[in-house]
Write a structure and sequence with these properties.
Layout: H1 11-21, E1 26-32, E2 35-40, H2 41-57, E3 65-69, H3 74-85, E4 89-93, H4 99-109, E5 111-116, H5 119-127, E6 137-140, E7 154-156, H6 157-170, H7 174-181, E8 187-192, E9 202-206, H8 207-221, E10 228-230, H9 238-251, E11 254-257, H10 264-271, E12 275-277, H11 280-295, H12 299-320, H13 327-348, E13 355-358, H14 365-373, E14 378-382, E15 392-393, E16 412-415, E17 421-425, E18 432-433, H15 437-443, E19 450-458, E20 464-469, E21 474-475, E22 481-482, H16 484-491, E23 497-503, E24 510-516, H17 518-527, H18 535-539, H19 542-560, E25 570-575, H20 595-601, H21 603-609, E26 615-623, E27 629-640
Parallel strand pairs: 1-11, 3-4, 3-5, 5-6, 6-7, 10-11, 12-13, 13-14, 24-25
Antiparallel strand pairs: 1-2, 8-9, 9-18, 14-15, 16-17, 17-19, 19-20, 21-22, 23-24, 25-27, 26-27
Length: 651
Amino acid sequence: MTNKDQGLDTFPKLLRRNVQQRPDVPAYREKEYGIWQTYSWKDVYDNSRSLALGMAELGLKRGDAVAIIGSNRPQLYWVFAATQALGALPVPIYQDGVAEEIQYVLEHAGVKMVVVEDQEQVDKVLSVLDQCPTIEQVIYKDTRGMRHYNQPNVRSYEDVQEMGRAYDAKHPDFFDSEADKGVGSDIATLMYTSGTTGRPKGVMLSFDNMVQAGKLSVEFEKLNEKDKVLSYLPMAWVGDHLFSYSQATHAGFSVNCPESAETVHTDLREVGPTYYFAPPAVFETMLTQMMIRIEDASTIKQKMFHYFIGVAKKCGVQILEKKPVSLVDRLLYALGDLLVFGPLKNSLGFSQIRVAYTAGAPMGPEVFKFYRSLGINLKQLYGQTESCAYVCIQSDNDVRSDTVGPPAPGCEIKLDDATGEVLYKSPGTFVGYYKNDEATKETKTEEGWVHTGDAGIMTDDGQLKIIDRAKDVGKLKDSTLFAPQYIENKLKFFPSISEAVCHGADKDTVTAFINIDLEAVGNWAERRGLSYTSYMDLANRDEVYELVKGCIEEVNRDLAIDSELAGAQISRFLILPKALDADDGELTRTRKVRRRIIAERYGTLIEALYSDVDNIHIESQMTFEDGRKGALKADIKVRDSETYPAMRAAS
């Protein structure tokens, strides 16, 4: 840390600096009842201070844990600074988690206070209170529906702040003196992993981790107080914490919270962010919706769109990267920008974007190149909860679809000679797993190297390529490389496919489960006069199987020209009768596939894929949105797809 940064080793101290340097600059904005409410950095400080002192009055002490559950709201972000100023430990939890998932984290972290968004989250916490005896207070932000809740340990956010203001009047020096006690080596937050392979682990991140990761990444992208982001991803996810809390506090830019999950795209267009982050699934969904709208457009508009998208694919990336392009192509691209790309970016809310990131899972190269060809400076970021999402960042002058870039400033990377697993050292490297020394020792070496669990290779010029999760990479019986995520990402490029799970390790061939995109395929069916009653009904139509078969065979043709993966083409597939769901344990809360759960639950379907049957009956349990359990019974078709001879690259 430089001399200039001495004394700014925690977020409460950085917040105090922002009040001194930019008190009136917009810090957090929230759309409420259709109107954007703006809070300056002084507002953030005053609100965090009163909340912290109110929590102190209620008995919060240094070392206590405070859970945060809810959608992205300024008031919930302020809980981090308030809690940290007192030396307590903020623990964000995924707001869409069912009661059992929330209970595990509350109990494991020994949470003393819970700050939630609304009645729904209050009810979840109250339903597990008997299993979480350490909880003393439940504080809610939204008062709607809370009139008849008269439990003595349930109170409103505003009431706690009123208590804090009264406490401040009696003890005016308490807040600053407590904040000054914090140092960089203190634990700043406890963030739980998504639990891809089992129970989530509590990752202890220090102020040194989060402050340095935020500072270095802000300097790398030259972020400043004029930038603005839309904060809509789960607060419990480390990526949001880096962008919407650490970087925002460092650079002083504004964090904009949407009105609801349903209004995100509308709010995105209104905000017009200069800095944007989304996991691949969000970009894939946007692309799907875009293609649906084009299919509903007039013939002239469709032809114009496809013609200029062809121009963009030919020269758009080169123009973005300021590389030589012929005058004719440059003029055609400019015309396309006027007629197609510009309006398209405006409708997406991307008109002002200076830099955009994707991370959290590999993105298909086709999707990645599509957005960059429109002139959007989309780059890939690589990291994990254990690194504060800070390991690799692509630089503006060298962006590639097949790498995640070189090590970020201050980071080191090496590959395990035997397994090809990626290991790193980072300023963001976590302190350890909470209450789990054994897992800490397995993940973090004595020299400070962290095992990622990802398989990768380094290019000759020092760029990292992530192949897949190391445990998921395997080989077919004939020793052909099997990298399921790579194939799945190719499949998800098609608007009609929302999710795919490939099988093949130690098998003769590769097979696949497919989830169709209900909106895209439903729109496709309606334009062809195909009626259907439900997702299950639509997924089982022969016409839909033919549509998906065409997508799979196009992927197979692509794989045929890859010398390493030509033998990993998909030979058989089926369309699942339900969408894979986090509530059913099939996906994590960050939408990653839980392969072990799927293999156990749908083992009979995997067997069917490797047999000669054309139909298979399945009975499985599913969870409805209201938490009720139900039985799923369905007859599923199994179909072959054509594979192609390996082709020479030159051909």
